[in-house]
Amino acid sequence: MDAVAGAAARGQCPLPLISDLDRFVYRPGLPGLALGRLRTAEITRDLKRFRAVRAARLHVAPVTGIDPERHTVTAGGRHIPYDVLIVATGVVPDRSAVPGLQQYGHGVWDIPEALALRERLAQGARRVVVAADHTSPCVFGTYELAMMLARGAPRVTLVTTEYGPGGLIGPHARRALETLAARLGVEVHPGRRVAEVGRRGVLLDDGTAVDADLAVVSPPPAVPALAAGLGQGAARTGLVLTRASLASVRWSGLFAAGAAAAAPPPVTAHVAEQMGLLAGRNALVAAGIRRGELQDLEPSIASLLHFGRWYGLLHYLRPAGGYGPPRFRGGIGGWPLGALKDLFRRAYLAVRF
């Protein structure tokens, strides 16, 4: 969005910005908040501190519909016109998709869930199940939470829909995570998802029952309500179908970034930020404000995880193209990043935002 904000500040285009919240939440920091390692103030920012917001007309209201034919967005009962639209609404978890989750389980999707989990952890737990769904953003945050919990007293079981944790990033990340899990005594159930959460544990989709005092489950994302107006421009999941340039395959003047785009996983926070930058740049080209052609997404994926004081994972992947083979893969398991992770996050937020 920086490129669009710069154009708006120079008076080249108006920039309406619609958000259902007036504060930004740095979701990769939520596991640290749940574990008591970070404070709420350290992972949230007032939207008005952002350069893009200061250059924009901010509308704090939920988006209830998009009319791509008339080029309008409905938010807070108002119809806001656009020439070019960037959809970066992300996704929300479908907690109802896992029976018993809302009654017996916990999540770590937002600030209230993270604080509720921290309060529950303070009461103590001997056996913990952590379940990750690769279709949800920040799946690595769920792995991080499992490894950090294993550094304490609980016996941790990790359930993941990946056929190996970190496998979507690459074999190096998968081997490093599996090594760390074995070192920390974490039992892994790959290629499985939680079918039901009960008072005394969880039931997996293959019929396996796992006893637990506490279940932390990442459910699959819900279908966004605004996808109804996109017709064939949206996938069955409700995500926006895009080309490699993040432009809609169906509608002119429409771009999507982050978890709102039906892009190949993993859409980590690092990748989502790159998608936002590219969508902003390409939106200016589509609007005729910037010269050039639409560029394709070529993301680099960097994961810096915190698994305790002396356990961590540093992994870097640079694909040749958003849909092409990787040029370079590297992974390090057991690297002493743990003591530096919280400092890294605080510095990143202070400098970037």
CATH topology grouping of the largest domain: FAD/NAD(P)-binding domain
Q: Report the uncertain regions.
A: 320-336
Strand content: 15-25%
DSSP helix fraction: 25-40%
- What is the CATH class name of the largest domain? Alpha Beta
| CATH homologous superfamily heading of the largest domain | FAD/NAD(P)-binding domain
Instruction: Tell me the strand order in the biggest sheet.
Output: 11-10-9-15
In terms of structural class, how would the helical and strand content be classed? Answer: alpha/beta
Q: How many extended strands?
A: 19
CATH architecture of the largest domain: 3-Layer(bba) Sandwich
**Average of pLDDT:** 83
Distance between the termini: 13 Å
What best-fitting shape do the alpha-carbon axes yield? Answer: globular
- Gyration radius (Cα, Å) is 21 Å
Tell me the count of domains.
2
Give the helices and strands as they follow along the chain: HEEHEHEEEEEHHEHEHEEEEEEHEEEH
